[in-house]
Write a structure and sequence with these properties.
The chain is of the alpha/beta class. 20% of the residues lie in helices and 27% in strands. The strands form six sheets. Strands 9, 10, 11, 12, 13, 14, 15 and 16 form an eight-stranded mixed beta sheet that branches. A seven-stranded mixed beta sheet has the order 2-5-1-6-7-8-17, sandwiched between helices. A five-stranded mixed beta sheet has the order 21-28-27-23-25, with no helix packed on it. The chain is globular. The two termini are 35 Å apart. About 4% of the residues have low confidence.
Length: 588
Amino acid sequence: MLVLVLHPRNGKANVKAMEILLVTNLNSKIIGAQYYRASRSFEGDVESPRDSSGHGTHTASTAAGNTVSKASLNGLGLGTARGGVPSARIAVYKVCWGSDISSADADILAAFDDAIADGVDILSISVGSNIPFDYLNDPFAIGSFHATRNGILVSMAAGNEGPGAKTVTNFAPWQLSVAATTINRQFITKVQLGNGKIYEGLLPNIYDLRGEFYPLIYGGDAPNTKAGATGTISRFCVRDALEEDLIKGKIVLCDGPIDGAGVGAILGGAAGIVLTGKKVVDEALGPYPVPASYVGLEENSDIYKYINSTRNATATIWKSEEISDVLAPYVPSYSSRGPNPINPNILKPDLAAPGTYILAAYPPSGGGSRARYYIETGTSMACPHATAVAAYVKSFHPKWSPAAIQSALITTAKPMSAKTSPDAEFAYGAGLINPSTAPYPGLVYDLDEQDYIDFLCSQGYSGKLLQTITKDKTSCSSKSINGTTNDMNYPSFALSIKDPKFVNGVFHRTVTNVGSSKSTYRAKVVAPLGLKINVNPSVLSFTSLGQKKSFVITIKGPIEKSNLVSASLVWDDGAFQVRSPMIVYVAV
């Protein structure tokens, strides 16, 4: 689902296709809703812009929901729920359908066209592919290009395909690519065995068995032989792999982690499930429709041994306890990582925002839940946090370009630690988004439509290939064809190298003064031993707002003891600190 957050001063949106969503259901918050389904296939959904899965409602309320006190999911996450910009209005453009939340290219591009025509201010898109596509074959890249050229910032989820390298799937330079972090809220769900031993797992469990013990069985001991399943498959408790008569009314221990683990036990009528992962720290898991916990391999082994030690193995699963995660924020394993799979010298993701165990509004039928609020996890949840901050910045600076707003978000982000997020900038980009300083960046790295076209030309998109993206008669100049991504005025720096002993990179940048009319900024560079970073000039003096100054950065090596090193450039005038992350890495 596409969710459009509009600037508070805008009150108009084109409202079409409203046959199902009655006009009487519209209000001052949701001012428009449309749906797109060229195939006319509505199986598993409703022909309406209504949200049937819960995903769109959750992300929309995170971005712009009103303030509601005493919100919770059956007591979990109790507190005041509030969207990032409660005064903003929302227009909905539904392109995703069915339980798998699938979308078609034609529908996506049609929604972009209507959103642009409606004059929205910010596009929030918690959707994307699970593998990277080049710009020519990516409807989100094409649609967001047109949105950006029309002055609309596009905020997008980085993807949930981590922690492998090059898994970020929304990475065009005109998109704000948002990774996910944990928050200081964590849920502990205890599994107690009949022998009295207790194991702590992670997973929000909203159900309270009140200490009642149920028979405990290992999924590998209950294969659905009629369907051809064996214990090697049934141990994961996937769909159709379990014999229902053997698991019904019991708590099932499931191996993992694999996609779909536990689903077969739930569908088979299990009283509860104990899921398993390599480590119990940060998996992308939300509440299940039955009592459930998520344990590590060691705990799984102990529980398995207990099952085999007695003929009457029993267990109970306790309702979750909410505790503080003292290591937060860090980037969890599910969040997609860089480097940029298409343009290695453009850092993606751009920044990170809260995305783990986020409580937000939910439709009564969404995902089978009857709750008004639900806890979800993913970069889909992180994206609307960034969207909200972008809308907040735009309310201060309505005439700023999308690139200027994006620059403000990146250069004011709070630095994060590679100790808790080992992939460093490839995990969190510039760092954790910072709403309090984002409207006051001091300097911005601005870009316009021609800059993006020059970028595409430098990447080999010329002639008909370029026009397929731009949808006009745009052509490439000889200068743009011979350009490099290092010359793109991006607010971060990435340098891909082949040999760690030989580092040589040159970047050209231009900053625009949006801070104090008269100011002098000095360059402060933080770099690891062996890496030499030169900024020329190292002092930038401004005499008016809107004034531009250019500089050149030269990076030379070698880099030592690692194939990836982090650095940073901060322009500091005493009042504003404009920080750009840098990363130098060996391409693989």
